[in-house]
Amino acid sequence: MPNFLSIIITPVIGAVLAFLVTFTLVQSMSASPDQNPAEQAALVYGK
Amino acid sequence: MGRGFTRVLPDALVAVVVLVLTWPMWTTAGYGLARDMVFSPRAPWTLDAIGMGSSLPRAVPLDGVLAAATSVVDGAVVFRVAVAGVLLAAGWGAHRLLAVVVQEVSPAARCLVGVAAVWNPYVVERLALGQWALLATYAAMWWLLPVVRRVLAGERRAWWASVCLILVASLTPTGGALVLMVVVATLVVVVVHRDSIARAVRLLLVAVAAQLPWVLAGVLGAASATSDPLGVEVFAARAERPGGVWPSLLTTGGVWSPFQVPASLTSWGGHALTVLVVVVLLAGGARMARREQALALAAVVGFVLAGLAHLPGGGDALAWAVEHVPGSGLLRDGQKWLLPYVVVVVSSAGIAVTRAERALRRRDSDLGALLVGAMALLPVVLVPDAAGRTWQALEPVTYPDDLTRAVAVLDDPDAVGEVVTLPWASYREFSWGNPVSAADPLPRWTERPTVVSDALLTESGSVAGEDTRAREVETALARTDVPLAESLAAADVGWVLVYADQPGAAELDTSGLTPVVDGSDVRLFRVPGADREPESSVDSAGPVAVAAVAAVDAAWGVALLGGLLGGLIVAVRARRPSREVTDQ
């Protein structure tokens, strides 16, 4: 791959990745606990 | 920059993605304890660790490997190395396999395959379920396929790596069955082409020998080798979104439990992924199937097995097999059999992207490279909340001091008798743990024989376990005609460990029991009158049987280390004369 392509692609990938990582981190931290309509009061395997 | 940079870019991207998926492991101290995953400071060398306890050898030889590893370094380190290691190995192996399958593969396609190999529904859901050892099989599969190719081509040096990878893939019975499936498929393909049959048979013999630790323990051990047929219904693959179970399986998801499924897969993200996987298979599946015929055959078989419970008569056939055929319980968790199919889908994505890139470059080379480069992150875009699921399971836990003290008392050489954990439950949500259910850490920590409930309480009912000793203790606990202390003493239970934070713990009748550790999180009691060691497999199966299993385990471990060392030496020597031989 020519060098100039690497120079173009790298910041694009880096920027998108940085955004996604930040988005994922924020979303994960603010995620609500598991919600399942069929959830029972008793602790079930896998929950 | 230039070639050197693009060479390391796929590996670096995989490392970043793995870092995101496992973030809590690196920011919080402690041990992995969530759902099926249990890491303790020091895993014990017990009869259960070699599958000769009273329960089925579900984690054999994994428990022995963990006991060996944690006798060298602390379990907290092993936890991080193991989980991150299997994910990194999967991503790094995936784009290298693509380079073997496709000539002149671009860095962008390698990036996509590396990311997709780690960030996909199968890996995320299994990791969220705590089944990192199954992912060790998945990781090994990426590296094993090119090695098998070299073995069949008559390259003798490749045997070291093949032995090592088959053993790593066989850390659990399920993993072993999966690698056997691929090796058998290899033999079938070789027989059809009438080529290298002797080498394929030798490979099969290695794969069969790799299963001896759990097979032998299953045959000689005390636990029932058949299981509760209710498990077939409970652990069958499940539709994650409207449209039935097959689209979910198509996108490598469909795990039986809804709690591990990222929310994005239950809506538009899942549907978009379904369309994308179909396109990918149409564009790259045929090429992949031609190049890796054995893998493709195993993928078809695995896909059918994954959805078998949903085929007409499939559920009944599985339930009959699980109830009557020893070892068939392995089949009841359907979605895990997708493993070879996941490898096919991810590799096909790489082939499809390579084809797209070549077509686009004919029109506009810059645009082609940019579009394909951006596609490397498509797996993350489609399932952006994957890390939310893995973080729940990978949040490390700090064990309470009470539990550490209790283990120290139980591990005293003068202590006698089994320990039972109460309240009687197989999975608990500990107040000092993370907010998901977790298996009991005690059997994976203390050297003392431990009896825990092995019945799995699910939304569809309670799936009975196979541990005969657990049944006896359960019967003793159910007695209402005598105090708990008397019924446990009559059942030869020497110790009772109570998780004080659990529902029902405060109501337990501990009168007559002698408190030894009285903490706010954990309480340990001695059962008066129970002063003899319980009957073990040494008594029931005989010392010769136990010694035979231990010897097989030792040979397994030596073969693993030998294969690892031999493979490394061969790899280093191969790199010396020319770096170009990499990936050949």
Automatic annotation (TrEMBL), chain A:
Keyword presence, Transmembrane: yes
Alphabetically ordered keywords of this record: Membrane, Transmembrane, Transmembrane helix
The keyword Transmembrane helix is assigned to this record: yes
Originating organism: Nocardioides agariphilus
Name of this chain's protein: Uncharacterized protein
Transmembrane segments: 6-26
Automatic annotation (TrEMBL), chain B:
Transmembrane segments: 12-34, 132-152, 158-191, 203-225, 265-283, 295-313, 337-355, 367-387, 544-572
Keyword terms: Membrane, Transmembrane, Transmembrane helix
Keyword Membrane: yes
Name by which UniProt lists this protein: Uncharacterized protein
